[in-house]
User: Fold these one by one.
Assistant:
Number 1:
Amino acid sequence: MTQPLPLPFAPPLAPPLAPPRAPAVAPVGWNRGRVGMACLIFGESTFFSVFVVAYLFYIGKSGSGPQPSDVLEFPLVATLCLLSSSATAGLAVKALAQGNAARAGVALALTVGLGAGFLGATANEWFGLIYGHGLTIGTNLFGTTFYSLVGFHAAHVALGLLMLSLVLGGVLAGKLGPEHSERVEMVTWYWHFVDAVWIVVLTTVYVVGV
Amino acid sequence: MRSCPQSIAGAFVSKGGGAWAGRILIGLWATPSVARADAGGGTPSLFMPVAEPAQSILDYGTLLVLICAVIFVVVMGLLTFTVIRFRASAADNDEEPPQVYGSDQLELAWTIVPVLIVIVLGLITAGRIVALQKDTRPEGSLAVRVVGHQWWWELEYPDLGFVTANELHLPLGQVAFLTLESDDVIHSFWLPQLAGKLDVIPNRKNTMWIEPQKTGMFVGQCAEYCGTQHANMLLRVFVHEPEDFERWVREQQLEARRVDAHAEGRALFAQTACVNCHTVRGLTEIGSFGPDLTHLMSRTTLAAGAAANDEASLVDWLTDPDHIKPGVRMPAMKLSHSQIARLAGYLSSLE
Amino acid sequence: MSASTETRVPEAAKRTTSGWSQSLHDWVTTVDHKRLGILYIGAGFFFLVIGGVEAILMRAQLAVPANTFLGPQEFNRLFTMHGTTMVFLVGMPIVTGFGNYLIPLMIGARDMAFPRLNAWGFWMFLLGGIVLYMSYFASMGLYGAGTAPDVGWFAYAPLAGKAFSRGNATDYWILGILISGFGSVSGAINMLTTTLTMRCPGMTMNRLPLFVWMMLVVSFLMLLALPVLTGAQVMLLFDRFMGAHFFDTQAGGDAVLWQHFFWFFGHPEVYILMIPGFAYASEIIPVFSRKVIFGYSFMVAATLAIGLVAVGVWAHHMFTVGMGKGLSVWFAVMTMIVGIPTGIKLFNWIATLYGGKILMRTPMLFCLGFLGQFLVAGLSGILLSGAPLNWQLSDSYFVVAHFHYVLIGGLVFTIFGACYYWFPKMTGRLLSERLGRWHFWLFFVGFHLTFTTMHVQGVLGMPRRIYTYPVERGWEVWNAISSSGAILQALGVAVFLFALAQAFRRPQWAGPDPWNAWTLEWSTSSPPPAYNFLTIPEVRSRRPLWDLKHPDDPDWEHE
C-alpha cells in the first residue's frame, strides 16, 4: 500500500531561517487584514441584528412606563459627531498613506474627539432618561430593548475609540508611518462599521420606533 | 409478563440499518396494549389512533414513510452493491482504476428526481397543514380550556361550569376545541393517539381540536421539558358514549359533597392553608394555584400520575409531597398525624 | 533536490531533548496551527469521554421503568450537560481542530492567517468548558438550585429565566458557551481568511480540496450563527441579572422569541457540525476507492447551496409552538429543499465508490458506516420536516434518534475515520488496523442497538427528557435495548483510546504518504516540520500528488 515516492518537498534535517513567502493567488487587494476585518464586521453585524430584531418586535408592546414618543429626542448632535468622525478617519488614513504624519495626527485627534462627543451626548441622553423619566432597562420592554441596543452600540464606539487612541498615540510618537497605513485603514474600517450600525440604530429607535 | 415473543423477536431482527422499518412494524403490532387493573391506557402508540386528527396524521405519515422507504431501499441497495462489487481483491495489481471525473447527465438526473419528490411532498404537506390546523372554534364543539402548570394540567370546561385536573373527559363523536395556556413555563400537551402535540406557552393562547372516534382510556403526557417533574406530568383522556359523558358532567357540576362523618376534616381543610391554593366548590373558592379538588375522588391518580388515588396515598402525600414527587410545588404542611388522617378522610369523600 | 542548505542552525534547534516542563511550555505558548489543531482535537476527545459518561448514566437510569438510580434533578442536569458538552465542547473543537491542522497544509501555506488569534481562540474555548464544568463543583445555593444547569441544552425561556431557574446554575451554562463561542468565531475568521488569501501559487478556488471548500462554508455559517446565539444569551443574562424583560413572560416578554433566536443559531449549528464530516468523507472516500471524487463542481455547488438554505429553515424546530399555517408551510418546504443538495452529495460519494478499487481499511469502514447512516438520518429528517407528522414526533425519542443518527452516525463516524486517516500525518505513526476494526464493529453495533431502536420509542409516544417512565407504557424493552448499546459504544471508544496509546508504545512508522493519497498534506513529512513545506509548492490541478505520481495522465488534462 505504501509507495516509495520521490518527494520534491522533503524537509531538511534542521529548520532553516525563514524562507521567503511565495505569491498567493488571492484576488488583487485581498490581503489577510482586509478579509479578516470584513469577517469580523460580518459577525458583528449578525450580533447587532439580534438586538435590532428584538427592538422592532417589541415596539408598542410596553404596557406601562415611559413610551418612546414621550421621552426620546432625535439625537442630532450625537449623529453629526459620529458621522463626521468617519470622514475625519478617512482623511487620517489618506494623510498617513501620503506620509503626512502631522495631518494624520490632527485628523485622528478630531476623530477621537468627535467620537468622544458622541459618547458624551449619549451619556447625557441616558442621564435624562434614567433620572428625568425613570426609564431603566427593567422598567418595561422599551427600556429593555433601548438600553441594550443603544448600549451595545456605544460599547462598540468605546472600543473603536480605544483603538483609534492607540493609533493616535502611535502617530504622535512618530512610530507609525505610511507602511502602517494599511493596518490603520483596517481600524477605520471598524470605525465606519460602527457608524453604519448607528444609522441602523437611529432609524430603528428614533424613526421607526417613535 | 407483557413482552410477548413477537416484540422480542422484533427487536432482534437484523441489526443492519436496513431493517429498522421492519423491526418497528413487527414490534409495534406485537406490543399489546394491556390495561392493568390500577392503571391502564397501555402504549400511546402513533400507530393506534383513536381520534382525528391523529388518524389523518398517521395516514399522512404512512405516505411519507413509504416514500422514504423506497428511497432508502434504492440508495442503500446501490451502496451495498457498489461496495461488494468494487471491493479491491488481494489479487489486484497496483494499477489505479479508470478515473471518472463526473457526468453532467447523471448530476442532472439525480437532481431532478429529488426536486420532483420534494415538489410532490411539499404540496401534499401544505395541503395537510391547511386542512388539519383549525384556528377558529367549529360550530357545536365542546370548549375545553387547558392550562399547564408545573407539573399538572388544569382542565376547565367553561361552558359547563367546572374545573378538573389531569384527566380529560370527552364525548364520542363530538369535536372538542381546546384552548391551551400556561401559568408558568412552556409545556406541551400531547395525547399521541388523539392528536399531534401543541405547546402551552405563557402569554399566548394556542388552539387545537380533537374528534374522538373510540371510547376508552388513553394516555399522554407533557412533551416539553418544563423542570424537575416534567416526566410526571401525565395525562389521561376518557372518551365516553354521549350519555355517559353527560352523566359525568352532571356529577362534576355538583358542589362538593358534604358528608357528616368528615365534618372535622372539612373544617380543618377550611381553616388550614389548603384553601390558599385549592378550590373546593361549595366550601372555598379562593385558591387557584393548585388543582381543583371538588371531585378529587373521581380521578384515577394523584399528582398527575405520581400515585394511586386512595386514602393511603393521600396520607403519604399530605405528610410529604416531595417524597412522592420530588420538587413538587406543594410544600409539606407539617400537620400532625391525626390532622392528616382527618384531612385524608375528608378528601377521600370528595367524589 | 532542495535549494542550497547552507544555513546556520539556530541555537534553539540544537537542543535535541527537552525536559517535560519545556515541552509543556512549548505546547501552552504555541501559535503553530498544527499544535493548536492537536490541542483542539485532544480537548474535544477529553470532553467526549465526559459527555459519554453522562450518557451512560442516563441510559442506566432509563434501562428499566420507574428506576431510582438517578433522581429527577440529577437526570435533568445530566441531559443538559450531555447535550451542551457534545455540541459545544466536543463537536465544535474537533471540527475546528481538524480545520486548523489541515487547511494550511492542504493549501500549501505555512500557518493560518492569524496564528496568535488562533491560540487565543483555543484557550477561550477551553476556558468556556472549564466554566461550564465548574458548575458541578458549585454548591447547591440558597434555593437548592445551584450546581450544574438543568434547563436543557437549548434553555427555553421562561424556564431559563430568573423566576424559574433560581441560583446560578443557568448562568454557568450561559457563560460557558458565551466564552467558548468567542473561540469558535475567531477560528472561523482565521479559516476563512487563510483560505481566501494564503493559497499557494496555482491553487485557484477551483482547485481547492473539497475539505477546504467545506470548511469555508462552515466558517461562513459560524460567523452568521454564533453571534446570534451570543446576542440571545446576552439578552438572557440581562434578564437574569439586570431585570430586563426580553423573555420575561410575566412582564410581557415573549418566550417564543428566544426559540426563534436560538434556532436561528441552532439550525446552522448542526450544519456547522455536520459539514466537516462531509469534508472528511470527501477526502477519505476517493483515496480508498483509488478514484477522483465524482462531480467536484457539483459537490462545491451543493455545499454552497446547503450553507445558504440552512439559514432559512430554523423554525422546523418549532412546529409545535402554534405558528400560523403560512410559516409552517414555508419551513416544511424549505427543510425538504435543503435535503436535495444533501442527497446530491450522497450520490456523488457513491459514484466515487462505483468503479473504483475499494480498500476496506479503517478510515473507509467508518466512512461506509457514515454513508448508510447519513441516508437514514436524512430520511428521518424528511419525515420530521412534514409538519403534521412533526406535531406527533417532535420532542419525542424519534427526534433524539434522528439527531444522534446525524451527529454520531454521521459526524462521529467520520471523525473516527479522519482520526485513523490523519493520525499518521500528525504523529508519524499508523494506528493499528486490527484495533481499528474492533473499534469500528463495537461502535457500529452499539450505535445501532441504541439509536435505531430509539425510533421505536418515539413512535410509541415516549417524550424526550423524562427521567423515568411508568411500566404500563410498553417502552421498557426498547429502552433496555438502547441502554445495552451504550455499553458497546463505550467499549469501542475505549479500544480507540487504547489504539492511540499503542501507537506511541509500539509505533508503526507511517512515512510521509502511507495511504498513497493526492493532496498537499501528504507531500511533506509525518509529522510536518514547523514550517510545513521547505518550499511553497506550485500546483496545476486539484490533485497535485496524482500529477506527480502519474505524469503520463495528469489531472489537469481532465478538469
Number 2:
Amino acid sequence: MADFPKILSENWDVENSHTLEVYESHGGYVALKKVLTGDKITPEALREEVKTSGLRGRGGAGFPTGVKWGFVPQNIDKPKYLLVNADESEPGTFKDRFIMDYDPHMMIEGSILSSYAINANDCFIYIRGEYGWLVDRLEEAIEEAYAKGYLGKNILGSGFDCEMIVHKGAGAYICGEETGLINSLEGLKGQPRIKPPFPAVVGFLDCPTIVNNVETVASVPWIVNNGANAYAAIGTEKSTGTKLFSVSGPVKRPGVYEIPLGLPMKELLMGNDYCQGMKDGVELKACIPGGSSVPILNAEETLACNVDYESFAEHGTMLGSGGCIVVGNDANMPELLKNLIQFYHHESCGQCTPCREGTGWLDMILERMLNGEGRPKDLELLDRIGNNMMGTTICVLADAAVMPCQSFIKKFRDEFEALLPDMEEPEDYIPTTSSAELPR
Amino acid sequence: MAKITIDGIEHEFEEGKNLFEACAEANGEKLPHFCYHPGLSIAGVCRMCQVEIEGVPKLVIACNATVRDGMVVHTKNDRVKSTVKNILNFHLLHHPVDCPVCDQAGECSLQDFYMNHGLYDADIDIDDKLAKGKVKPIGELVMLDAERCVLCARCTRFTREVTKTDELGIFHRGNHSEIDVAPGKTLDNNYSLNTVDICPVGALTSRDFRFRKRVWWLETTDSVCPGCSTGCNMTIHHNEGTAYRFKPRENMDVNEYWMCDHGRLLYKDIMTDARQTAPTVGKGDARTDGSWERAYARVLEMAEGKTLAFVGSPHATLEELFALGRLCEVAGGKWIGARLASTEVGEADDLLFSADRTPNGEGLRRLKAGEFSLDELRSAATGDHVLVVLENDLVGLSDSGVLDGFAGVIAIAADANATTEAADVVLPTLKYAEKSGTWINKNGRAQALAPAFVGPAEARDALRIASELAETFGHTFTWTDAAAVLTEIAGTVDGFGALAAGIGPQGVSLDGTPDAPAPSGGEEAQA
C-alpha cells in the first residue's frame, strides 16, 4: 500500500468523531482560523490555492474545483451562493454519507471555506430525503458551529458572515444534477435548467451559484492546512489527492475506502488493505467503476485500470462518483442492465423528449427480452435508440442511461443474444402500426 | 453586426440575436420545433431545432444559442437531418396518430415535420403505446388530449409567464409526464384559448371550434378585433360566408401574439338571428320590409320641414363617421355626437382587455365626433328633429323612452335592437367582417379592416348609405370607397396626416410613436 495521508477518513473510527469537540481535538477548524484570522488569506488566494491543488469535483464530472470557483463573477452586485450537493443518489455511491455521518464538521468547515472563496454568505446543504438521520446529525453539528462562532455573523471576528441551512430533498435522482438541485431548492420541479447561462453566473435565485459535492468541499480544509502542493503530490499529474471509493458487490470486504488516485484497480479490489478479493467461489466478471452511469468494464479491463481520471478514460469509462459496483460471474447481465435502465426510466425528469421517451423505450425492450418476447432486431434497436439519446438533451441523464446500456451489450453480447429468438427477422418486417398492415 | 454563415450563405445579423430567429430569416422557414415560441421563455426541451455549429462538438439547439461573429452554422447537413428525424421519432413514439379524428390535423406541427423530416415506418407496436387520458375538458373552452401531447410546455409557460395564473402544469415524470390542470383549478382565464393556438399538436383543442370545420376548408382574412379599444390584430377564419373562429395575428406594437377569449368568440355575433336583412319602413305592427328606394323616399318625407340630427358610433369606422359628419354638413343637420358618455365600458385587465369595449372610441375622439350625455340627447329629442343614428343602440344603452321626443328615427344598423325597434326607417348595413375601413385603437394606432365575406344581400355599406342619403338630399359625394374617404381624412383633418401613405397590415400610429401595451415585458406588465 502506498503511503499517503488519509485526508477524508482519518477520524472515522474515532469515538464521537461527529462532535465538535473531537473534530477540534484532531485539528478541526484550524484551516478556518488560518484563513480568516491567522494568515488572513484572501478569497482570491484561496481560489488560487485550490486551483493549484488540482482538486477536481468529486460528484462525478471531475471538473477542477478552483477553476469552477473562478467562474463566479465577483464584480456584480448580487449575493452569491454555495450549494453543497449532498443528494448522493448515483446507484452504487455511498461515500458522502460517511463524511456526513462520521465527520460532519469537516464538511461544514470545508463549506465555510468554500463560501469564503467565492464570497458567498449563504450556504445550503441539499441532502437527499432518504438520508433523514443525517439531517439531524448535520443540524446538530451546524448548531455546534454556530455556538462556537464558526458560523453566523462576523466569524471569528473576521467580518465574514456565513449562514448555513440544511435542505432535505424529496428523493429524486435528478435533483443531484446541479441545475435540477437549484430548481428543487427554489421550490420548483426538479428539472435541470438549460445552459447557458451557467449556474456560476445565473444560478440559485438567478444569482451566481456554485454547486460542490460534499467530498469536494470536505477536501478543502486539508488543502488549506497542508498546502496545495502537498495535495497535488498525492495521486497522478491530472488526478491529484485522494478519493473515496464506495465498493459494493461480491468482494470479501465491501465498503468505503479512501485511496490515493492512481491506485491500481487490482489493488483496490484484491489488495489486503482494501476489498481483499472476491468472495469465495465467485469470480470477477465485470465492474462498473464510477457509479451506475459509467460504461462497464469486463474483468480483464477492470484489473488493467488504475483508479484515476486518465486511466479510466483510456479504458473507455469514467471515474465518476467512485461508486464501484463489482459484478461476479453469477450475475445475469441482461437482468442487471434491466435493473439499471428501469432506474433511469423511473428517474428521467421527462422534459427532454429523447430522454423521456428513450429511457422508457429501452426499458420496454429489455423487459420484453427478459420475458422471452425479444425480437430479432432488438439489440440493433437498443443501440440505435441509445445513439439518438446521447448528447441530445439538456442534462446527461440520457447519456447516463445509454452508457451502461451500450457497454453492457457490447461487452456481454452473447448473454443478450441468447434472449432473442433464433429466427432471422424478415427483411420486410414492419411493426403493426404501419399503414402496410392497416385495412385498406 | 455579426457575419454568420448559415448553410453556406453568409448573412449579417445583430450579434447576440437568437439563432433560431436568425436561421428562420436566413432560410425563409423556421427550423423544426415544438417548444420554441418567441413570446415565451426558452424551454429547450423538444430538442428539434438542433443545428451544427462548426467548432462545437455537440449539436446545439438553435433556440438557446445566439449569433456570434464568424459562426458557421449547418441546419440541413446529414448529421442534423438524421438527428432531427430521430428526435421526431421519439416524439411520435407513443403518439396515437389519430389524425383522422383530430381537430389539429391540417395545422399540426407533428404532421408538418413528419412530412419534412420523417416518413418512416413506426418502430413500436400499437399495443406497446402508452395510453393517456383523452377528451378531458380542462376549462370552459379547452379540451385536453394527453396522448397527443409532445410536452413542449408552451401552455404551461403561457399560464405561468403571460397570464400568471398557473392553472396548468406537467405532472409526473419521465414518459408518464402529462399536462393537466393543477388540482382544484380549471383553465378558465380570459386568455385560455391562446393555449390552443400555441399547442403545436392536437393536445389542446378549442371546445368551441372542435369538429365544426376541417381547417383546410378555412380561408383567412386579416382583421382587427371589435371587442375593445386595444384592437388586437386577428385573422378571421371563414368558409362560405361564415366565420368559424378568430385567431390572433402577431403585432408586437399591439397584442404581440395573443388575444382574449372574449374577443375571440365575437365571431358568433356576426351572423345572428337578429341580423337586419332588409330595409324596413314603419313601426310596430305597421312595419314592413321595403326596397331601398321606398326607404329613402320615406326618409325624404320625414325630413320635410325638419332638421336632421345625427348620432354616430364608436363601433363605426373612421370613414363612416367622417361620411356621416359630411352628410350632416350638407343636409344642414345637427351633430349630436358619436357616443353616449360612460357607456360600453367595463373593467380592464393587466393584459389586453381594455375598459373601453368599443373598437373605435379613440377614432371618434380624434375626429372630434364627440361624446354626449343622456341630457344632451334628451334635449335634442324635439319635434323639430329627425334622428339619423348609425350603429348605435341608444335605447339599449339608456332607457326605452329616450328617442320618443324625436319627430322620427332613421336607424342604420346591422342588427335589430331596441333602437331599430323604435325607428321609423331601418337601413341594414354591414359588419366589420364584411367591409373595408379603419379603427383607431386606444393608443392612436390606425388599423385596417378588410371584408372577409359578403354580408346579407340587401345590406349596404354605411359609406354607401351616407352617399345615397346625400343624393336623396341633392348632394353628391365624390368618394366611392373607404380608401378614398381615408385619403380625404388624411389630407383634411388635423392629426390624421400619418394615414396619407395608407395603412399596412400592422397599422400606423397616428402619433408617429410606437405604442406599447405589450402583454409581456410591456409597461403594464412591469408595473
